[in-house]
Structure formats: structure tokens, C-alpha cells
What does this fold into?
Amino acid sequence: MIATPDRTPVSRAFFDRPVLEVAPDLLGRLLVRTTPDGPITVRLTEVEAYDGPNDPGSHAYRGRTPRNEVMFGPPGHVYVYFTYGMWHCMNLVCGPDGSASAVLLRAGEVIEGADLARTRRLSARNDKELAKGPARLATALGVDRTLDGTDACAPEGGPLSLLTGTPIPSDQVSNGPRTGVAGEGGNGDVHPWRFWAAGDPTVSPYRAHVPRHRRS
DNA sequence: CTAGTGATTCCCT
DNA sequence: GGGAATCACTAGC
It folds into this structure.
């Protein structure tokens, strides 16, 4: 018997904790995206922590800008950014108002609305790939900058909501260095700030950051 | 499975 | 001006 996942929204206090405490606790939670066509729900399997203005890998490192404004606001809200000219990625803001820490949602298992997710993720070869990677997850859920600042503590039925779900026990959580972050990898100064559900097939492959510049 | 590279645009320096 | 918290595709093992 598998217990029915708890569909109560998480509290504001859940997010108002140190980011390294919140990040592994997000695994197994349910992220519900309600669209005009119906809901899409993802069970989170992989996340990465970003520790505010003191973290060189964080978008908040160089201070407040129009893009990262939401990171500096109250916990429990969604920070969405656009990158590589094509993709969106989503974070959940943690810690007290002003602390600017956040958790990047890197991957999950689509457990409801897979038919809707497939229409946005035409290149996915199977359902395990629907949300396997941060931009894939945002694409599968139909998340873009118009949802920047959305309150994820809101009840199910709003645009985005994080439900209690079934948290993954800490002995089934693995951790390692962050993926694709400039300044990490190759210098030994690597923090185990990526967390994932051990052995889960929806977790994205690790990729080191590759510095690149414009072609002629 | 890993490694290499083009795509495409916003944002900050 | 130039890099970016990535993906899709290709080649090769």
C-alpha cells in the first residue's frame, strides 16, 4: 500500500529556513501547474541550492537587478529566469525576506497531466524525459517570465502551487556538485548543493560547465 | 553512455 | 559586447 500523497499546500514557514535545509526537503513534493487546459503535476526529484548574495554561482551575487528582484523578496515565491536565448528555468525563493537564496527545480516525474506536458515537449522520447532538466521541467509545465513572482504557497487551483506530497527520506537523498554553473568544477571549490532522489530515472545527467564564446 | 557544438535573446558590464 | 543555473542533435565508443 502506498499512502495517498498529501495535497495540502506547504506553509510559508517551510520556505523560511536556510536554503540547504529546504532544498533536500523539496524532494518528493508536488508542484501543480494549473492551466486553462487542466492541471499538470510534477513530483520533484532533483534540485539545486543557491545561497544568496554571498554565492558566486547565484544570480543574486552581483546585487539586486530587475531580473532577480523576486529573489530578494519573501520566501515561497517563484523566481523564473530566461537563459540561452530560448529557455526558462524556475526557482523557489527561500529564507527570510531580503536574503535572496533560492532553489532551482532541476527535474521531476510528471504524475498528472502527462498528455498536456507531451504537447509542449515534442522532442521527449518517453515520459521520463518530460521534466528531466530545469528548462525541460519549466517547458513541460508551461512556465515563463509571466509567472515570475507567483506565490507557490497558494492553494491548488492557482497558477502554481507546491503541495506537501510524500517527502523523500534523507537516507534516499544523494548530493553532489551543481550542474553547469560558471566558476564551479575544475577549481576544487565545489559545494554539494545539488540534491536528488537516489536511483530515480527522471534525474538529469550531470554536466560540467563549459565556457563558450561567440562564433565568428 | 560521453563529448562536442549550434541555436537564439536577454541582461548586465 | 559577450556570456549565460540548457537543450537537441551528431558522432563515436
